[in-house]
Amino acid sequence: MRRKLVVGNWKMYGRLARNQALLQGVLDGVRELRAADYAVCVPYPYLSQAATMLAGSNVAWGAQNLSPQEEGAFTGAVAPGMLVDFGCSYVIIGHSERRGLFHESNEIAAAKFEAAQKAGMKPIFCVGETLAERESGITEQVVATQLDAVLVRFGAKALSNAVIAYEPVWAIGTGKTASPDQAQAVHAFIRQRVAAHDAAVAQGLCILYGGSVKASNAVELFGMPDIDGGLIGGASLVADDFVAICRAAQ
C-alpha cells in the first residue's frame, strides 16, 4: 500500500524569524505522526535553516527549482549539487508558476527532472491544466503531453524514484478546488498512462494533488484511491493548517 506524502511549497515567502516559528510548529505537530511522510520545499536562502532545524526529524526538506546544468557560467542559477550539499531530498520540477511565469517548456522540465535524479534527489514533477484547457475538454491531452516529456524520454522506470503532482492551474491560490471526484479522475488517468508502460511502477507511484488543499477538504481528497497526498501551497505557511493536513494523511 502506498504511503501518503504531504509536501509544503513555501513559494517566495519566508523570513528567518517567521521560518523558525513555522518549522518548530510543524515539528511539534507531526512528531508523533508516523503513518505518512512529510516534507517542506523552501526558498534557496533558507535551505540551511531548514536543514539545521529538521535534521533527525520525520520532516524532510527540499527546494523549489534547480538548474539542469551541473555547474558553469549561469549567473543566478542553482546547481543540483548545491542542493545536495544542503541535504535536499526533494525538488519541485515544472510547477505551473515556473511554466507560466518563467516560460519553462516541457523539455526544460524534463531536463531538470533528469538532473535532479542524477544528483540523487527525488523530483516532484508537476502537471496540470489551465481553466481554459479544462473548459475546452482537453485536460487529459494537456496532462499526457506534460507527463510524456518524462515518460517517453526516460521510460517508466524513472518514475519509480519520483513523485507526480497534479495541480490544476485554475485551483492554485484561487480558493477554488477540484472536487475529489474531479481530482481522482485525473489521478487515475495519470496512473493508467504510466501503467500502459509499466504496471508495477504505476501501482507504486505517489501522485499528489496540489490545488488549494486545506484542512477542511484534505480528508476527503486524500480518501480517493489514487490521491496519495498533497503538494500544499498557502496552507503550508501556517503551522496549524499544515499539521492538520498532515493529520488528514494519517
Summarize the structure.
By secondary structure, this protein is of the alpha/beta class. The chain has helices at residues 16-30, 47-54, 80-85, 96-101, 106-118, 131-135, 139-154, 180-195, 199-204, 215-222, 239-248; strands at 5-9, 37-41, 59-63, 90-93, 122-127, 163-166, 206-209, 229-232.
Describe this structure in words.
- With 250 residues, the chain is of the alpha/beta class.
- It has a single domain, classed as TIM Barrel (Alpha-Beta Barrel), CATH 3.20.20.
- The chain contains eleven helices and eight strands.
- Strands 7-6-5-4-3-2-1-8 form an eight-stranded parallel beta sheet.
- Strand 2, helix 2 and strand 3 form a beta-alpha-beta unit.
- Helix 7 runs parallel beside helix 8 and helix 10 packs parallel to helix 11.
- The longest helix has 16 residues.
- The radius of gyration is 17 Å and the shape is globular.
Major β-sheet strand ordering: 7-6-5-4-3-2-1-8
Poorly predicted runs of 5 or more residues: none
Arithmetic mean pLDDT: 96
Q: Using DSSP, what is the number of strands? A: 8
Percent of residues in helices: 40-55%
CATH architecture: Alpha-Beta Barrel
Rg calc: 17 Å
User: What fraction of residues sit in β-strands?
Assistant: 5-15%
Oligomer: single chain
- Overall shape: globular
State the fourth-level CATH superfamily: Aldolase class I
What tags apply to this protein structure?
TIM Barrel; triose-phosphate isomerase activity; globular; Aldolase_TIM; EC 5.3.1.1; 250 residues; TIM_sf; cytoplasm; 11 helices
